[in-house]
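User: I'm putting together a teaching handout on how sequence relates to shape, and I'd like one worked example. Could you take heme o synthase from Desulfofustis glycolicus DSM 9705, show the sequence you're using, and then write out its predicted structure as tokens right after it?

Assistant: Happy to. First the sequence, then the structure tokens directly below it.
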Amino acid sequence: MNRCTTAHAGTERRAVGTVSIRLIRTAKAPLCVAVAASAIFGLLLARPVLDGRAMVLFASVFLLACGAASLNSYQDHRWDRLLRRTRDRPLASGELPLRVALWQAVLLFAAGVLLLLLLPEPQAPLLVALTVVLLYNGIYTPLKLRTSWAVLPGAVCGALPPYLGWLAGGGPFATAEIFIAMSVLALWQVPHFWLVTLNYRDDYRQLSLPALVRTMPEDKLRLIALIWILALVSAVHSLLLVRPLSPVWLPVPISALSLALAAISGYALLGSRTPGYRVLFALMNGFLLLVMALFSFGSLGR
């Protein structure tokens, strides 16, 4: 009897674990951690203190981002079935009921908003948060099924979390510093997305989904992606000019990382016969996270 009970309990734990993993994948939790980190990046630019406010901000933005991602998974599930890189997602594969994703989105949105309301003077950050959700789920997600240039409003979505953090930290509504910081995120978003489409170009070319890899020669798209990456590098250097950091030598590694990204991207996209799109995609991710971390560290040291 005890063995049967133990075996049944083990099966239940495995089932709960499997469902939990599917819910986490539907919410795209690792991506949402990065979104929340970008909000902290903005907060520390305005208010270089890691305290309870930063913890509340991180948790609230993470929950809101997970809610938006869950709704996005629901919106995209039909198209996800057609792409090799997304067909194994829980909703696309039928491993998770659609209504579960919708309920998850509602609960995560509600929890994120309630946490955001705990911040001092939460009105402006809340307005930015709702704007991001509207842009992401109401404009970008439907638009990407209609035009290859939906990536541009998508870049705006990606640029707003640092602004949310900046306002939560008591920063003024409009300064060169935060707008340059937002431009770093926006300029990163576009080539980041294009690298995904280039890596899975055969999928996109075989389907009716709008994508520049279907309408533009690959070498031209590589060149345009490189131009955006060079603009990203320029934006990072512009932020170094307007943002004092401590220790005073910290801009050196940030500049070196930026120039290294430019050189590697130039070789990969123009000089190599077999571009490593997946590797460059990973480098872009690591670069952004490291640059935000270094600026945050330099802000705390002031």
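A couple of points you could highlight for students: The mean pLDDT is 93. Residues 174-302 form one domain.
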